[in-house]
Amino acid sequence: MRDDPTVIALVARARKGDQGAWNELVERYLPLMWSICGRHRLSRPDADDVVQTVCLRLVEHLAVLRTPAALPGWIAVTTQRECVRVLRAVRRREVAEQPMSVDLAAEDEATTMIEQELERAERQAALRAAFAQLPPLCRKLLTLLMRDPPPSYAEIGDLLGTPVGGIGPTRARCLARLRQSPYLHGYLSGEGGGDARTPV
User: Are 7 and 47 in contact (CB under 8 A)?
Assistant: First the structure.
C-alpha cells in the first residue's frame, strides 16, 4: 500500500538519524531491489553494485523526498534505472568495437514489472509485520503448517504439546487473527478461504 503508515514513520525516524529505522527500511526493500536485479539477469557482482548504489542514493535523497509514502516506488524506479545503466556498461565492455544494441524490455513491460515487484515486496513486508504480531503459539503453528511437506497433526501436537483435536480450531483462530491485522488492510479485500500453507 503506497500510503503505508509504517513506511512513513520509518522515513521520518530515519531522517532524524535513527539507525534502527534506516536498517529496517533497507531490510524491508532489499528483496525488491534483488528481484529487479534478477529480472535483468545481472551477475551477482553487478547486482551488488546496483543495490549498493541505490542505498547510497537513498541516503542522499531521503531528506528531500517530498512524499515519504512514495519511497517504495522511488526505490523500484531507481533500481530499474541502475540496472539499465549497468547493462549498458556491460555491453560496452563486451562489444567495444560494435555499436551498442541492448535489447531492454519495452517501456510498458518494464513499468509492469516494476509494479509487480513493488506490490510483491509491499505485500511480503506487510505479511511479515502481521505475522510478527501473532502470539507465539500461532507463529509456531503456522510455521509448521507452511513447511513443505507439512508435518502431520500428530507430529504438530507432539511438537507444540497441543491435543490433535485442538490444532484445526487453533489454526482457524490464528489465520483469522492474521487476516484482521491492520498491516494487511487493503490486501485481503475480496479474498476468501486460503489454506494452511498460504495464510494470506
Answer: no
Per-residue pLDDT of the chain (200 residues; tens, 9 = 90+): 456 788 888 899 999 989 999 999 999 999 999 999 998 889 999 999 999 999 999 988 888 888 888 888 899 999 999 999 998 887 877 666 555 555 555 556 666 777 777 778 888 888 888 898 899 999 999 999 988 888 898 999 999 998 989 999 999 999 999 888 888 876 665 444 344 344 44
In sequence order, the 6+-apart residues with CB closer than 8 A to the CB of 148 are 197
Cβ proximity of 38 and 52 under 8 Å: no
Phi-psi category of residue 17: left, alpha or beta, with phi > 0 → left and psi -120 to 50 → alpha: left
In sequence order, the 6+-apart residues with CB closer than 8 A to the CB of 106 are none
Cell 485442538 -> residue: 166
List the one residue out of 191, 142, 147 whose CA is nearest residue 171.
Answer: 142
Question: If residue 13 lies in a helix (H) or strand (E), which one and from where to where?
Answer: helix 5-15
CA distances from 42 to 51, 84, 98, 128, 165 (A): 11, 10, 21, 27, 50
Q: What is the pTM of this model?
A: 0.53
Instruction: Look at residues 195, 88, 102, 65 and name the one whose alpha carbon lies nearest to residue 142.
Output: 195
User: Among 112, 22, 107, which Cα is nearest to 71's?
Assistant: 22
Q: How far apart are the first and last CA of the chain?
A: 15
